[in-house]
């Protein structure tokens, strides 16, 4: 049996002003937004709301301690609605703040606290990658466990995903590159997941087409063209969120999490470090079904033969972001065994979605090849 769910209502606003007029944010509302974004896009808004500048709590990837610190700042103030305006870190965090009880965070992630939502949640993405606005997943680094873990529960769905392309206009190139790469990987991993259906593949393919088309334009026109493409990249990211929210991500994300947590590598960059090698590994084991169809789709989009798609794709992606070997992030050889153990023992939720099962030796060999 398969279910296909698009839970949050998707609202598109043409500007921040239109959003402010529509939602009347004020008393008993909590707004999570960076100081810079507020100054630039919402200079006269949120006066009566509880506003948290999350940049004061987090500089990179999200952790359980960040959640506990923000929780302390919110204190006992009465909150009915939560508006999170930001990248995946803050959208994932906001999903927890919408719960009746979420502390201690490690108990929530261990299943010892039942997630129960008791506030309205509105997620407004300002990058074009995580798709978090559409999923029921919150991903955090649990500092005691030294890896990132995902909590998936329907109580984490937002009520509305609000898309405001204007908010992406000042996205620094590095964030554009890493977030859009993450979205492409969401679309591709969900396409080849055993949980994929005809419904999820519509959204995977839509995202892949938009992102590859955008990357090809950037390859020929240069980076200055990016602002004209952001509306498409934001839509692609949301499509990919719908796809992986239903069909799941897999080994690329699983292998990426120990690196991301240990070396604080941005999520999309860390995924890119593993992406092509994981797909070459799949292809070396089996090439029928979804992988065969994916290669045909990519061949059409890239203008090459199916046998050359991963070479061509890597060439296109290198233009967006240069892949580094693991030692360049400070990884040492003995880390590879422990990363492999983390993947095999803690990332079962993702590894269950692999196109073909990958055993311990195969996972270790991917790490070794990329070292
Ligand atoms: Fe991701």
From TrEMBL:
Write out the entry's keywords from A to Z: Oxidoreductase
**SUPFAM superfamilies (UniProt xref):** Dehydroquinate synthase-like
**Alphabetized CDD domains for the sequence:** 4HBD_NAD
Classification via InterPro entries: ADH_Fe/GldA (IPR001670), ADH_Fe_C (IPR056798), Alcohol_dehydrogenase_Fe (IPR039697)
| Residue ranges constituting the Fe-containing alcohol dehydrogenase-like C-terminal domain according to the UniProt record | 177-370
Which part of the chain is the Alcohol dehydrogenase iron-type/glycerol dehydrogenase GldA domain? 25-165
Could you cite one Gene Ontology molecular function of this protein? metal ion binding
Asked if Oxidoreductase is a keyword of the record, the answer is yes
**Protein name per Swiss-Prot or TrEMBL:** 4-hydroxybutyrate dehydrogenase
Species? Pectinatus cerevisiiphilus
Q: What is the lineage of its organism?
A: Bacteria, Bacillati, Bacillota, Negativicutes, Selenomonadales
């Amino acid at each position: 049996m398969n279910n296909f769910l698009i839970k949050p209502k998707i609202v598109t606003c043409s500007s921040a002003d239109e959003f402010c007029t529509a939602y009347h944010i004020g008393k008993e509302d909590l707004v999570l937004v960076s100081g810079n974004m507020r100054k630039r896009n919402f200079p006269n808004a949120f006066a009566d709301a509880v506003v948290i500048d999350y940049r004061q709590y987090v500089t990179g990837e999200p952790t359980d301690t960040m959640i506990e610190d923000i929780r302390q700042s919110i204190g006992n103030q009465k909150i009915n609605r939560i508006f999170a305006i930001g990248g995946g870190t803050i959208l994932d965090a906001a999903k927890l703040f919408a719960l009746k009880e979420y502390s201690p965070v490690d108990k929530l992630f261990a299943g010892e606290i039942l997630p129960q939502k008791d506030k309205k949640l509105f997620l407004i993405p300002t990058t074009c990658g995580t798709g978090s606005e559409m999923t029921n997943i919150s991903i955090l680094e649990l500092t005691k466990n030294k890896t990132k873990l995902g909590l998936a529960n329907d109580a984490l769905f937002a009520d509305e995903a609000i898309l405001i392309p204007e908010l992406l206009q000042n996205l620094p190139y590095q964030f554009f590159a890493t977030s859009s790469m993450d979205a492409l990987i969401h679309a591709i991993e969900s396409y080849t997941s055993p949980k994929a259906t005809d419904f999820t593949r519509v959204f995977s393919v839509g995202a892949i087409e938009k992102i590859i088309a955008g990357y090809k334009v950037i390859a020929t026109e240069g980076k200055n063209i990016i602002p004209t493409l952001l509306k498409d990249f934001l839509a692609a990211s949301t499509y990919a969120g719908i796809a992986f929210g239903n069909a799941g991500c897999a080994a690329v994300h699983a292998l990426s999490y120990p690196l991301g947590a240990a070396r604080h590598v941005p999520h999309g960059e860390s995924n890119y470090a593993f992406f092509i090698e994981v797909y070459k590994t799949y292809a070396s084991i089996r090439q029928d079904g979804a992988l065969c169809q994916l290669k045909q789709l990519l061949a059409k989009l890239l203008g090459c033969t199916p046998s050359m798609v991963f070479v061509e794709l890597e060439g296109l992606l290198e233009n967006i972001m240069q892949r580094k070997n693991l030692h360049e992030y400070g990884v040492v050889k003995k880390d590879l065994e422990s990363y492999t153990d983390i993947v095999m023992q803690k990332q079962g939720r993702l590894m269950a979605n692999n196109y073909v099962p990958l055993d311990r030796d195969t996972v270790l060999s991917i790490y070794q090849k990329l070292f």
